[in-house]
Amino acid sequence: MSKFAKKKDGEVPAVSTASLPDIVFMLLFFFMTVTVMKDSSLKVENVLPNASEVKKLEKKDRVIYIYVGKPTREYEKTFGTEPKIQLNDKFASPSEVGDYILMERAKKPQEIQNVLTTALKVDKNASMGLISDIKQELRKVNALKVNYTTYEGDAFNNLQ
Amino acid sequence: MARRAGAPEVSAGSMADIAFLLLIFFLVTTTIETDAGLDRMLPPMEPPTEAPPIIKQKNIFTVNINRNGQLLVEDEILSIDKLREKAMAFLDNGGAPSGSPDYCSYCKGKRNAESSDNPTKAIISLKNDRETKYSTYITVQNELVGAYNDLRNREAKRLFGKDYVAMEAEYLNPETDDSVKEELKEKVTRIQGLFPQKLSEAETSSE
């Protein structure tokens, strides 16, 4: 039986997997550093319209988000089907937008407080009345830079 | 020193498995994509005492959107896909006669005396109903911004042989070198000066 155990010359040694954890850890750290955790779960429907003349929103730390849309099905019973504003994790009325912006602004470092952008993520079926109210509130607190967040695409797809 | 039968080595074989598990978790939760959209500046709240500046009617291009998403442009009904063309014709008109201080040397429009004098004077006024759908509004905004971008592209091509939109994107990109940025800033502001974006939005009213 000993002839089975005998090693032949020139046999390829098994590839060492000792460095596999290192490689995997490297990848792991990469993804850990680039990950941005979603900080608020959406409570409103949020299908954005399309636009072609878009600009990218660089520097995420300089953006304050406002979501607008119809409450999703689980919230329909309590909040109805009219489009609503969502700030952070809760529904809000237009009059609360100003306070929210001031609060978020105060959280940011001093040097970027006056270069903040407000990103309006509005569902395409919302009506302009609510948006106008929000814009008025934004003007009151002097948050004049807004970005209507859209998908990139042909703007005429919105009309169907 | 007699060694004891040393503690058995901890097997590191499962380390890779644990790391993989974490890796997969982060892979799944990662979102790298950046948002994009239409940038706009809201007008500052003006002090109520200040009288609004007087603007000649011919320098204003009015766009009205009603609740059904129909457009009234300069008191005529217009379909939305003609809007860009019409806005460009208005902005690029350059109606001031040569010799006057408002004369526009780079305009390629019809030079109709009834329309805007100069792109720097021309104002687009947008008004919408409270019931207008947001998607319609975005389409109109997109077309108006597009009209400006098309004209700016044309001038940028003529002056610098490059698209304005591309230059601006490069200028705003945080990875661009500072020296390149300086140079771009000058060009971008020059083009913006030729066709300043004067898009006024009336407060939505139900008057």
Automatic annotation (TrEMBL), chain A:
Please list every transmembrane segment annotated in the UniProt record, as residue ranges. Answer: 12-32
Arranged from A to Z, the UniProt key words for this protein are:
Cell membrane, Membrane, Protein transport, Transmembrane, Transmembrane helix, Transport
Q: Where in the cell is it found?
A: Cell membrane
A single cellular component GO annotation:
plasma membrane
How is it placed in the membrane, per its record? Single-pass membrane protein; Single-pass type II membrane protein
Q: Which residues form a coiled coil?
A: none
Which one GO biological process term can you cite for this protein?
protein transport
- Keyword presence, Acyltransferase: no
Family per record: Belongs to the ExbD/TolR family.
According to UniProt, the name of this protein is Biopolymer transport protein ExbD
Write down the species: Maribacter caenipelagi
Phylogenetic placement of the source organism = Bacteria, Pseudomonadati, Bacteroidota, Flavobacteriia, Flavobacteriales
TrEMBL record, chain B:
Q: Where in the cell is it found?
A: Cell membrane
As for membrane topology, the entry says: Single-pass membrane protein; Single-pass type II membrane protein
Q: What is its main location?
A: membrane
Drop me one GO molecular function for this one.
transmembrane transporter activity
Sorted keywords for this record are: Cell membrane, Membrane, Protein transport, Transmembrane, Transmembrane helix, Transport
Q: Name one GO cellular component term.
A: plasma membrane
InterPro entries documented for this protein: ExbD
Q: Which Pfam families match?
A: ExbD (PF02472)
From the UniProt record, give one GO term of the biological process aspect. protein transport
The record's comment on protein family reads:
Belongs to the ExbD/TolR family.
Task: Supply the name of the protein.
Answer: Biopolymer transport protein ExbD
According to its UniProt entry, this protein's organism is: Maribacter stanieri
